[in-house]
Amino acid sequence: MTMRRVFWLALACVVISPSVYGQEQSPAILKEYDQAIDRIAERAMASVVEIEVTGYGVPENDKDQGQQQQALERQRSIGSGVIVDPDGYIITNNHVIAGAMRIRVIIAPATVELERGNTRLSNPQRVYEAKLVGSTRYADLALIKIEEKGLPYIPLPEYYHFRLGQTVVAIGAPEGLDHTVTKGIISAVGRQPEVDRPMVYVQTDAPINPGNSGGPLIDRDGNLVGINTFIVTSGGGSEGLGFAIPEPIVRFVYNELKEHGIVSNVTIGAHAQSITPALAAGLKLPQDWGVILSDVDPNGPAGAAGLHPRDVVTTMDGLRVDSLPKYTAFLYVHKRNTPISMEVLRDGKSVTLSVTPVDAAPLIDNLSDLISPKRDLVASLGIFVIDLKHSAVGAMLNLRSDSGVLVAGLLGGEPATAADLAVGDVIRAVNGQPLSDSQQLRQILASLKPGDAVVLEVERQSVLQYVAFEME
After folding, report:
1. Taking Cα atoms as reference points, which of 242, 227, 202, 241 lies closest to residue 93?
2. CA dist 347 to 190, 283, 337, 351, Å?
3. Smallest Cα–Cα separation from 369: which of 432, 307, 423?
4. pLDDT beyond 90 at 82
5. Which of 80, 135, 187, 213 is catalytic?
6. CA-CA distance, 307 to 240, in Å (whole number)?
7. Residue of 77, 85, 95, 311 marked active site
8. How far is CA 21 from CA 5, 25, 176, 320, in A?
9. Which residues neighbour 159 within 8 Å (Cβ) at sequence distance 6 or greater?
10. To the nearest whole percent, how much of the chain has pLDDT over 70?
11. Catalytic residue check, 64
12. Could you give the CA distance from residue 167 to residue 370 in angstroms, rounded to a whole number?
């Protein structure tokens, strides 16, 4: 018997009705349920893409080290994305495209049914070069675009809600296996895995693995519940603890990135914290849950609006605030440059105020997060740099220097020239010539020959010193 005949015999066994073997037919409701999920998954798969990224990133085993020890290495990674606009706009995770030199989007039809004589197991692919529109590390979202129109897409409706326990489907490319579909339920809504990080997520038990990042989590009607972003695991694979960025945050970030290219951080100049029973008892508060303002900057928007320390926040824009994650989420997704109507309890009385958030200084967990490899690499020195001129980075890091270039990352492996530089150094001058920006640095280095002596004046931990070496 030929292998071809064996294959089709096995395939026939797959598609033969169970009734052939004398088994009872499945209840109609189960068949209808499966068919409904089939249709939703098939329709949604047309909007899901695989994303290939080549660029520079911190090796996985170095991510827990201090930034001084981190060296960026050439990497290739695979993730997922979802088309949210027919004109080629695609939402994915920021960590999928971070450090990218090149982003490619792969669109391919999915095999959805095994049928004798009509099954295509090798699907033609369309590959597009994508450009980065913008990203936000805080929400771990990015918007990329390909030059194509009329694409199938999953819309981002303004009014949409989801419930605990409802069926959801995750679609992505785990380990590069595109259009992998898994099913589960919403295990929790408004989950805050890290107490010190106020981002909230939708938790699901639908199996999610590396490569699913950036792909959609959809409900039984084909609506986007969220963007799959990470898992909690002890073994590296799915253990039923997957987390997706909720659709309201995805929608807000998409609109901000499409219009402005960035999502600015905002503040009202007040510190909020969760009310605990002990805190409520000690301060004799009217409730032992919710959010209290513990500090208010008198010169900030909150102070100008009349907010006080010990005010208990009850509503924002008419919506109830019952937890710190909800307070933070309302502030994050609030339309920029417009006032928030806040209702607070003060000495047992309800007070309504209007406060307009202002832009806050960007948060920097690691200097390498600020790097654009294509723009910032100085290959001959094996460093990634950021121009300090016209940049707020120097003030945020309390640097003495207001010009020159900041070393924001080191290139893994041996650089062309062995210069003793570290992340956080500021190169102020080359051979006594004051340095304005990275373009000038590259021009000076290009003019030198092997064996030429180079002396860099460097600010390192607020101390000026020299770094001397020879060009190679």
Report:
1. 227
2. 30, 11, 30, 10
3. 423
4. yes
5. 213
6. 43
7. 95
8. 22, 11, 38, 58
9. none
10. 86
11. no
12. 38
Assess whether 135 carries a catalytic annotation. Answer: no
What is the rounded CA–CA span in Å between residue 239 and residue 233? 6
Model confidence band, residue 12 (pLDDT cutoffs 50, 70, 90) = very low
Q: Residues with Cβ < 8 Å from 387, sequence gap 6 or more? A: 405, 406, 437, 438
297 is catalytic: no
CA 247 centroid distance within chain: 13
For residues 178 and 87, what is the distance between their CA atoms, to the nearest angstrom?
A: 22
pLDDT in tens, 57-76: 777 655 555 444 467 888 88
Selected catalytic residue, list 140, 311, 376, 387:
140
What would the two tokens of residue 386 be?
A: 């950021």
Maximum distance among all Cα pairs of the chain, rounded to whole angstroms: 91
Q: What are phi and psi of 270, to 5 degrees?
A: -145, 145
Predicted confidence at residue 354, as pLDDT, reads 95
Average pLDDT of the chain to the nearest whole number:
85
For the four alpha carbons of 11, 12, 13 and 17, in that order, the dihedral sign comes to: positive
Q: Which distant-in-sequence residues (6+ apart) come within 8 Å of 335 by Cβ?
A: none
3-state SS, 242-265, equals EEEEEHHHHHHHHHHHHHHCCCCC
Quickly count helices (H) and strands (E) in the chain. Answer: 10, 27
CA distances from 123 to 15, 90, 158, 364 (A): 21, 21, 35, 43
- Report yes or no: 99 and 73 within 8 Å, Cβ to Cβ: no
pLDDT digits (tens, 9 = 90+) for 220-233: 888 999 999 998 88
Q: Token digits for 273?
A: 């914290």
Instruction: Please give the Cα distance from 417 to 431 (Å, whole number).
Output: 16
Judged on CB neighbours under 10 Å (0-12, 13-18, 19+), 76 is exposed
Cβ atoms of 422 and 446 closer than 8 Å: no
The contacts of residue 399 (CB under 8 Å, 6+ apart) are 388, 406, 426, 459, 462
In whole angstroms, give the CA distance from residue 378 to residue 381.
6
The structure's pTM equals 0.79
pLDDT at residue 432, rounded to an integer: 92
What are 284-317's pLDDT values in tens digits?
A: 998 999 999 999 999 999 999 999 999 999 999 9
Token code pair at residue 414: 């041996």
Q: Is there a contact between 467 and 383 (Cβ–Cβ < 8 Å)? A: no
Is residue 118's pLDDT more than 80? no
